[in-house]
Write a structure and sequence with these properties.
The structure is a homotrimer of 175-residue chains. The first copy, chain A, has 175 residues and is an all-alpha fold. Helices cover 70% and strands 0% of the residues of chain A. The first copy, chain A, has seven helices and no strands. In chain A, helix 3 runs antiparallel to helix 7. Chains in contact: A-B, A-C, B-C. At the A-B interface, helix 1 and helix 4 of A face helix 1 and helix 2 of B.
Chain lengths: 175, 175, 175
């Protein structure tokens, strides 16, 4: 479980750093990240041993994590490229790839690909609005706050409001 | 589906760049690659909505893609190493790894490992002949054309002619 | 099978090199590693065709491989960081990641995550004792020998003595 927790937590940022060539990757010289993940995993394991977690607690924590990772991933990518598409993609990867690696390790199709919930979509929207805010030269914490707010809002709409993506179905007789 | 299309298209070259240390990877400063993949995915989705794709159309497109990716991967590796084995391996990886990542994301055993069709074999043969052509100092587009031709020919022999690899079976009583 | 053998053999060290930014990765300019893996795979395939492998032969070979890869991975990480946690983690990754990638390619949950055998634990203990030996300035081959000995001993205790980890079970009514 410790392995899964750490992979989920740092997987997205690690992939971003590898693709951008920011090596050694971020946690090699800053092991505080690993300690935080291990601590959080231990706390959660102990907690669910004694009490029920509050309704949706994990999904809410996950929504804030997704928003934070996505916007900070986009921020780092801005130091490497001027291409908006790449900035948004790197933000999205940072936000969602950790969970995807976790699902691959568990031999499942990554939730982010499978689910009709707004997950990748929330990350894409958050990274896009953050980057637009930067391009419009909004003052410093504003783009970050806007980007995180929209990502969290879309996740909440999906968790509480049942907002869903349309699904694609191959027509009968298609290949 | 956009994610899957992009991963399949750029996965092999991305892995090659990571292993060689060519970072940021090729598409970070050249997002035209991503746009082409997204465009092709959108076109294909729309097309199969309205018409049957022609027989073997996807496999034929895939055969040319495999040949092109394999030879260009080998070409790039030649700038990093003189080791023929590594050049051939990098070409093969560039050609086949995108599809393997796609299969892993879909929680399947990669087709390239599973199938008795000549797939990795076509890439290995194409990269080897391309590299031999370079070592023999054939004039400039000749090695590329030879390498691509043999890879496409082996794929076609597999698709249309039913050419297959022998399979390995553990003898009864083996471990 | 050649692909699987090579991935298992060099996967852990490749991941370590990518994360540390030691690129091109170790086998690009030293293809002797690839030849050794291919040779060993060919030998094993031929061997099991004609004779039963001795009892536990593969697991014993694997135990020594795990010990060697783990300690050498930790050694390389020491050149990049002073953080003990990272040294131990990189050693463990080098030891176990190749097999994990192999399992992912075969669409299985990696044995290292699934099994209650002491596998990652053996690597963690070996890397930790090796690194402690270095910190205590023991003379040169001693930390290596101690680290490898403890990793092999724990694997043997697991294979022959049936030593197992406790498993974690979510209490009834948990999330």
């Amino acid at each position: 479980m410790a392995v899964i927790a750490v992979v989920t937590g740092i997987g997205g940022g690690t992939l971003r750093d590898l693709l951008l060539g920011r090596t050694p990757v971020f946690w090699v010289n800053n092991p505080v990240y690993l300690w935080v993940m291990l601590g959080a995993a231990a706390f959660t394991v102990l907690y669910v041993r004694f009490r029920q977690p509050p309704l949706h607690a994990l999904e809410i924590a996950d929504a804030f994590g997704l928003a934070l990772f996505t916007v900070s991933g986009a921020q780092i990518a801005e130091g490497f490229t001027r291409q908006g598409l790449i900035v948004v993609l790197m933000g999205t990867l940072t936000g969602v790839a950790g969970g995807a690696v976790r699902d691959v390790l568990c031999a499942e199709i990554p939730m982010v690909l499978r689910s009709r919930q707004l997950y990748a979509t929330a990350a894409i929207a958050g990274a896009t609005l953050y980057h637009l805010g930067v391009l419009l030269r909004l003052p410093s914490p504003v783009p970050t706050l806007i980007g995180m707010a929209i990502a969290v809002a879309l996740r909440f709409a999906s968790i509480y409001g049942g907002l869903r993506l349309p699904s694609f179905r191959l027509p009968e007789g298609g290949r």
